[in-house]
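Appendix B: a complete holo record

For completeness, this appendix reproduces one full record from the ligand-bound portion of the collection. The bound molecule is fe (ii) ion. The inputs are the chain sequence and the ligand SMILES; the output is the full three-dimensional arrangement of the complex, encoded as structure tokens. No fields have been trimmed.
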Amino acid sequence: MGKTFPIQKNADDSIHDFWSRIRVNFVTRVEIGKVNTMAVANTPSRDEALMLLQEHVSDEKLQIHAFCVEGVMRYLARKHGGDEDEWGLVGLLHDIDYQQFPHEHCKHVREILEPHGWPEEMLRAIEAHGWGICTDVEPKTTLEKCLFAFDELTGLVYATALVRPSRSVLDMKAKSVRKKWKVRSFAAGVNREIIQQGADMLGLELDEMYTECIMGMREVAAEIGLGDS
Ligand SMILES: [Fe+2]
Ligand SMILES: [Fe+2]
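The structure of the chain with fe (ii) ion bound, as generated:
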């Protein structure tokens, strides 16, 4: 584990506050050197991305969030014909600067990742997930729109799974998320307006987004503690 940094509250950034308050009771599995993901040209390796995650994000709950978003982005990459590693690693490291710089989120992505050769399109995609919140980088590509839309939704899906009898996403359906969406006091830190904005960007119904988010999180169910108990 790398350096540790105190988590500071940032009232303007509700989703990160949400993730900092959820309770987990398992150990996140981060196994550097045991990943068989093939890196394509100009795409950083997953091993290197995991090392950067450990160096800059020591908070376990933020690591879980990173794995949730990576899983969903890999799923969506295959659906949209994108590069799975590019989409997945953008998801994995999209909050790379949050723990160190909660009040300057997305502003330090370049200084962290550029020295490691991260290409411009991946840096821009990370910056664009904070559009209207902490950056003015508008999501333009499908990758950018998906990250913007699904980042926030992973929080609602995660919280919904935690209160189910199975405590799992493996047997969860969109209907469960739909019910919780309507209860504004449930996972209140999840900004429903941002998710709706993302759905509009992608031209998706919310139910479709719930299903896709669940499908993506199923692929990393063991890593995020929402698989078979
Ligand atoms: Fe973020
Ligand atoms: Fe995030």
